[in-house]
Design brief:
Helix content is about 40%, strand content about 30%. The chain is an alpha+beta fold. The strands form two sheets. Strands 1, 4, 5 and 6 form a four-stranded antiparallel beta sheet that branches. Strands 2-3 form a two-stranded antiparallel ribbon. The chain is globular, with a radius of gyration of 15 Å. The longest helix is centred in the middle third of the chain and has 19 residues.
Length: about 160
């Protein structure tokens, strides 16, 4: 077995996400899970925290090589926080299945926001089968999601 990584990064203007949510009130529920909305609701700069989570979803989807397409929903990539505030990724649905097919054993994320921008970086650790050169799905989608971790404390 060989290990390799897949990387995704996304930078978003906070006001762009604010505008999207203002112009389309239903978009907040379509993009963010209840847990993500509840976490951000208690924050002083709610818009920046939502924007960082939006960027994280994009970064993870880029690392998976899929983007948001058929069979994948925004809720399939959820940013949750440990009791100490460390962001983690929980994958489910189409994104979780894609991660399992790719042999993802871990997902690391880092979030940050400052002023006008929010950024997220995602790194997937993949295990490949040496004999075929293809990724081996050694974990189920749920297992891969449960192994997901992050590399930064609370982003704000």
């Amino acid at each position: 077995m060989t290990q390799r990584i897949a990387v995704g990064v996304d930078l978003v203007r906070v006001d762009r996400v604010d505008r999207l949510l203002d112009d389309n009130p239903e978009a907040e529920q379509d993009i963010f899970t209840e847990r993500e909305r509840a976490y951000c609701a208690g924050k002083r700069n709610r818009g920046a925290h939502l924007a960082a989570r939006f960027a994280a979803k994009e970064a993870v989807l880029k690392a998976l090589g899929t983007g948001l397409g058929p069979g994948t929903r925004w809720h399939d990539v959820e940013v949750v926080n440990t009791p100490l505030g460390r962001p983690r990724v929980r994958l489910s649905g189409g994104a979780g299945a894609r991660a399992a097919r790719a042999g993802a054993t871990d997902v690391e994320i880092s979030l940050s926001h400052s002023g006008e921008y929010a950024v997220a970086h995602a790194v997937l650790l993949l295990t490949a089968d040496d004999s075929s050169g293809t990724a081996a799905a050694s974990d189920t989608a749920d297992d891969a999601a449960d192994h997901a971790t992050a590399d930064a404390p609370d982003e704000g």
